[in-house]
Design goal:
The chain has twelve helices and eight strands. By secondary structure, it is α+β, with helices and mostly antiparallel strands. It has three domains: 112 residues, Butyryl-Coa Dehydrogenase, subunit A, domain 1; 108 residues, Butyryl-CoA Dehydrogenase, subunit A, domain 2 (Beta Barrel); 145 residues, Butyryl-CoA Dehydrogenase, subunit A, domain 3. Bound molecules: flavin-adenine dinucleotide.
């Protein structure tokens, strides 16, 4: 019995997404990995084909789709084995802030471009001295007449180079309680005082532009504040469940893909005696053990997807799923590289890139230690 009830429309959408991505996106991935950036035209292609921001209402150009459409695009994008075209971050993490908390004017101004891919978005929370502990953020936002003046530095911001619109978290210096002082602001590319810093050179996520951002007396219109003054933390917390669930969905889909590659390789590849690698008991059992863990992950995750889609509060289970699936992905890539043998460490094999990219997932969207801390608190530990 399937936990998730995909309709015929969902299935047709997945088929269309798989074919489109295989034809229009995957053939370019090697170039983007080498260039360490993904071109903006790729975003527009995804937008034109209707694969960005599927949850946004038709009123603003979106599909008005349920959460399963987001899941489908996220899972199909994993099949490209690259992270540069970070549609999941844009569609299901950043844009939902505008969709949920934006004024009608903000929605009319930005959402159609987010859907079409004309506007690439980023979310800037992390600072050089504030990662897990966002309460330590020091970027400031001060009202000056009808303007807000932003000052501070952000780092490790995904889409940091390509973004046209950045949601920036900054605090009012006059309010000492960090949970009441942070607000979110919409900052457009080209605003005087907003500069990009280094494009960070990482062990993985090569095609993704992770960058530093600097704000120096950056004056934005006061109407570019998102939500109520001082409600930044509340807004961030309310969206974390979906951000972490999307990360788990990506990790789970990657595990399934990696097992598929490895199973096929072990079935097709023979040793000198002509015996397929899959017929050695050690390899066979390794594949079965991984398949079991993947099935456990899928069952847990699909239940969470259904609960999240129904609007349920599943923060604790989502934290567990984010930790467990991203950890599983790390273990799996290491084991599968061994099963591939020498080819497993060649760049021509998809595993080295998957290994590097998946390694990063236990760190962002809240580190796995923070995930365990959340679960521990709810277990009364
Ligand atoms: C590829 C990539 C993309 C990113 N994209 C974005 C983005 O778009 N926007 C954005 O704002 N940020 C982004 N980040 C930043 C990311 O959210 C932070 O890296 C993350 O929050 C962890 O912060 P930190 O790296 O400063 O680690 P730290 O907080 O310094 O943690 C270091 C270590 O200490 C542990 N630790 C810290 N505090 C605790 C605690 N209370 N309990 C237990 N253990 C703890 C951590 O688990 C970790 O192991 C990105 C990071 C990466 C790697």
């Amino acid at each position: 019995m399937e936990i998730l009830k995909y309709t015929e429309d969902h299935k047709a959408f997945r088929k269309r997404a798989r074919e489109f991505i295989a034809k229009e996106i995957t053939p370019h991935v090697e170039d983007w990995e080498e260039a360490h950036i993904t071109p903006k035209w790729a975003w527009k292609k995804m937008g034109e084909a209707g694969f960005l921001c599927t949850a946004v209402s038709e009123k603003y150009g979106g599909l008005g789709g349920d959460f399963l459409y987001s899941v489908i695009v996220a899972e199909e994008m994993i099949r490209t084995n690259h992270t540069g075209l970070a549609t999941m971050l844009h569609s299901d993490v950043v844009v939902p802030y505008i969709d949920s908390f934006g004024t009608e004017d903000q929605k009319k101004k930005y959402l159609p471009g987010c859907v079409s891919g004309e506007i690439i978005t980023a979310l800037a929370m992390t600072e050089p001295d504030a990662g897990s502990d966002l309460a330590g953020m020091t970027a400031t936002a001060e009202q000056d007449g009808d303007k807000i003046v932003l000052n501070g530095a952000k780092t490790f911001i995904s889409n940091g180079i390509n973004s046209h619109l950045v949601i920036v978290a900054a605090r009012a210096p006059s309010v000492s309680n960090p949970y009441e002082s942070v607000s979110l602001f919409l900052v457009e590319d080209g605003t005087p005082g907003f500069k990009r810093g280094r494009h960070l050179d990482k062990m993985g996520f090569h095609s993704q532009d992770t960058a530093e951002l600097f704000f120096t007396n950056c004056r934005i219109p006061a109407e570019n504040r998102l939500g109520e003054m001082g409600s930044g933390f509340k807004m961030l917390m309310s969206k974390l469940q979906q951000e972490r669930l999307m990360t788990a969905i990506g990790a789970q889909a990657a595990c399934e893909l990696i097992l598929e590659w490895t199973r096929d390789f072990c079935v097709k590849t023979t040793d000198a005696s002509g015996k397929p690698l899959s017929k050695y008991q050690a390899n066979m059992f390794a594949l079965v053990e991984m398949a079991c863990e993947i099935k456990l992950g899928r069952t847990f995750l699909d239940k969470l997807i259904a609960e999240h889609a129904a609007g349920e509060f599943v923060v604790v289970e989502t934290s567990m799923a984010k930790y467990w699936t991203t950890d599983l992905a790390k273990r799996l890539t290491v084991r599968c590289i061994d099963l591939f043998g020498e080819y497993g460490i060649m760049e021509a094999c998809p595993l080295p890139r998957a290994f590097r990219d998946l390694r990063v997932m236990s760190i962002f969207a809240g580190t796995n230690e923070i995930m365990k801390g959340i679960a521990a608190k709810f277990m009364g530990l």
